[in-house]
Amino acid sequence: MSGLELRALTVARGRRTVVEPVSALVPSGAVTALVGPNGAGKSSLLGAVAGVLPSGGTVTLDGGPLRAAEVAYMPQATAVGAGLTVLEVVLLGRLERLGWRVTADDLAEAAAALDRLDLSPLSQTRIDRLSGGQQQLVLLAQRLVRRPRVLLLDEPTSALDLHRQLRILDRLTAFARETDAVVLVALHDLSLAARYAARLLLLKDGVLRAAGTPGEVLTPAAIRDAYGVETEILRTSAGHPVIAPLAPST
């Protein structure tokens, strides 16, 4: 199976290890969700894969070294105060290709990325005049315009309303399928993770507790262990799983 392979990947902050050795395969062509409670190590793991945090172990793509140019990473803190237009911010995603001029192809790719996220009407609006949720979408478009082989997103739906959460996860699923990209997304909403992710990685206290399909990972026992919550797993009329919290476990 092609994709991103983590081999004994660890992260330390000072003398404290925040991610114990993680070994997992993140397949190409689908969304993989990284889930777990607050402080589980999700952001640290994403930062290590992106190469912005020092780490131990190895990360490979399709059996070879993962190059920085193949990765697009969006951390949680992504607010922008610059007085650039939405289109200009998205074009920065192709900065390594632009040189001293913007080509018609660059403009077409940026326009397509904006259209993919329903942002075309805002293309000439200054980004510092947008809401936090709108800025989040623009910065996601900036990552998508690069057409990365590996897309790493830390809570990309955190500032979005329910409608936009569904639309964005639909778009990410389509992007992974159409480009055969690796898409690894940290999510707090377990129902959204179960609905959109082909594979889940469950972290707790920096330890990978489970990896597999949503049905294999999101069991009441596993959720109780990771989150300390009793749950019931329901199904919508369309067959989508819904993780219903019942009460804190005792």
Describe this structure in words.
By secondary structure, the chain is of the alpha/beta class. The protein has one domain: P-loop containing nucleotide triphosphate hydrolases (Rossmann fold, 3-Layer(aba) Sandwich), CATH 3.40.50.300. Helix content is 33%, strand content 32%. The protein contains nine helices and twelve strands. The chain has helices at 42-50, 86-91, 95-98, 104-116, 132-144, 162-179, 190-196, 214-217, 220-227, and strands at 3-13, 16-27, 30-35, 55-61, 64-65, 71-74, 150-154, 182-186, 199-204, 207-212, 229-235, 241-248. It has a six-stranded mixed beta sheet with strand order 6-7-8-3-9-10, with helices on both faces. Strands 2-1-4-5 form a four-stranded antiparallel beta sheet. Strands 11-12 form a two-stranded antiparallel ribbon. It is globular. The chain starts with a strand and ends with a strand.
SSE map:
Blueprint: E1 3-13, E2 16-27, E3 30-35, H1 42-50, E4 55-61, E5 64-65, E6 71-74, H2 86-91, H3 95-98, H4 104-116, H5 132-144, E7 150-154, H6 162-179, E8 182-186, H7 190-196, E9 199-204, E10 207-212, H8 214-217, H9 220-227, E11 229-235, E12 241-248
Parallel strand pairs: 3-8, 3-9, 6-7, 7-8
Antiparallel strand pairs: 1-2, 1-4, 4-5, 9-10, 11-12
Helix pairs in contact: 4-5
